[in-house]
Specification:
By secondary structure, the protein is of the alpha+beta class. The chain has ten helices and ten strands. It has three domains: about 170 residues, no CATH class; about 50 residues, Roll (SH3 type barrels); about 80 residues, Alpha-Beta Plaits (2-Layer Sandwich), CATH 3.30.70.
Length: about 350
């Protein structure tokens, strides 16, 4: 019996394996007891509060750290095995892998929660969801890459050459995908700077439309004619964009001309009457009306007023109302609108 207990396998005796099994079982029991008694109470307290962060910590602790505690109990029990034996080295390697895996997963869950909770601004369109997905992907790639390098370093692999290779590969990929990366960076510029949002009416150079979608690479507008306009985010941020959705009031300048046969008294009265016409409109603010210049075929007036709304339909309704009232005014005053004419005076 004594010889059986001293039988060695993978560098450790059967007696050591028995002690290891007893200690590991005891450790697992202690962790399970902690989970059932203490941790369950902590979980109930966290669920009773109105905060989100404590619920996240409890869930992340339960999904990532509790399994790590189970393995940690097994790893500590492996201390009774012969140091340097095959089994002891196996547990060392497994311990490193498990610790890196669960700690990385715990960090990812906390960081993603903090980014979504305190950084990304919630609104009514789909921009936040797309940014959250992108951030989630970037955070996971970066942290898992770092975890992989840490794991290799702790397993005795020289990672200096690997890091250099990744650096060269990263530069090559960046050159190959620079237009895509530029669009992605400009997407973040649009997201955080917010020059426009979904539903805004934009004019970009000679094109105009309502914003329907702001994507990671492109932004799409629906033109007044119904067709879809697609702009890369790089082109959009590099253009002069007019955003009419944020307009609080609209400045309007227009003019008309009357014939040269119009008496000066009537010219003065026209400016006064037009001021009354615009002042009587509640959603408009009069600025000025002047006999502007002597045209080739007309005496030209220039009128400036403000529409107290950014809505285009409101502006057109007011402009129409003013135009009709000016026509009625000139008809009443027996003043004629001028149009290009040529008068020939013959003298004997």
């Amino acid at each position: 019996m004594e010889n059986l207990l001293l039988y060695k396998f993978a560098g450790s005796t059967l007696q050591q394996y028995i002690f290891f099994a007893i200690l590991a079982s005891s450790g697992i029991f202690v962790v399970k007891l902690f989970r059932m008694v203490i941790f369950s109470r902590i979980k109930r307290i966290a669920n009773s509060t109105d905060f989100d962060i404590d619920d996240l910590i409890v869930v992340s602790f339960q999904n990532s750290l509790i399994p790590l505690f189970y393995f940690f109990a097994v790893y500590l029990s492996a201390g009774v095995l012969t140091p340097g034996s095959t089994t002891a080295r196996f547990f060392n390697y497994i311990f490193i892998i498990v610790v890196v895996f669960f700690v990385t997963r715990f960090c990812i869950s906390i960081i993603i929660f903090l980014v979504n909770r305190f950084w990304l601004v919630k609104d009514d369109n789909d921009r936040v969801s797309s940014v959250a997905i992108l951030f989630d992907m970037v955070i996971r790639i970066v942290l898992w890459t770092i975890a992989f390098l840490i794991l290799l370093d702790n397993l005795g692999v020289k990672i200096s050459g690997l890091i250099a290779g990744l650096g060269v590969g990263g530069v090559a990929i960046a050159f190959a995908a620079q237009s895509i990366l530029r669009d992605i960076f400009n997407y973040f510029t649009i997201f955080f700077d917010r020059p426009f949002e979904i539903g805004d009416f934009l004019v970009i150079d000679s094109l105009a439309g309502v914003v329907e979608h702001i994507g990671i690479k492109t932004t799409r507008l629906r033109s007044l004619g119904g067709e879809e306009l697609v702009f890369s985010n790089t082109d959009l941020t590099g253009s002069r964009v007019k955003n009419y959705k944020s307009m609080q009031e609209r400045r309007v300048v227009f003019g008309f001309g009357v014939t040269y046969q119009t008496p000066v008294v009537k010219l003065k009265k026209i400016t006064v009457e037009i001021e009354k016409i615009i002042t009587d409109i509640e959603t408009a603010r009069f600025d000025r009306c002047h006999f502007h210049k002597f045209g080739d075929s007309s005496l030209d007036f220039e009128i400036v007023f403000y529409v107290l709304s950014g809505d285009y339909r409101t502006y057109m309704d007011i402009q129409q109302d003013i135009n009709i009232k000016i026509m009625l005014l000139l008809e009443k005053m027996k003043v004629e609108f001028a149009y290009p004419t040529r008068t020939l005076f013959m003298q004997k």
